[in-house]
Design a protein that fits this description.
By secondary structure, the protein is α+β, with helices and mostly antiparallel strands. Helix content is about 30%, strand content about 35%. The longest helix has 26 residues, at about 1-25. The relative contact order is 0.17.
Amino acid sequence: MKQVEARGALVQLVFRKIFVFLCIIFSSLNLSIANENSEILNNVEKYLIDIKYFKVNFIQDNKDNSELSEGIFYLSRPGKLRIDYLNPFEASLYTNNQTTTYYDKELDEITTIKTSKTPLHFLLNENITFKDNSFKIVDIENKKENVMIS
């Protein structure tokens, strides 16, 4: 039972890291945006909606910087996302509009949850909008060509 709980905590940690990873990727997007917040949000929404396919190699560190993870991030909008962790462990995260599946190759274990219960749901929707009630925007920083929405 403890192994199942530990694995559930690991999956939660992976989702949090993915969300932070996505924030970092999209915070560095090159956007020509006016200063008004609603216009900034509209431009970011349009930019994200216009992404149809995205692939990037990544290096991710953990909270205490003691270990780096490497992998490949794939996005096919709307509806599909895949993350393959290659080092120091092999694992994959597969997402579609309905289901998110985490596969730990070393343990040969699969964990599945509803995509709507993850932060990935926002990115996979056909129509991305900041106007719904799924999250609260606390701050918008517009510095030169970078936008950070928190």
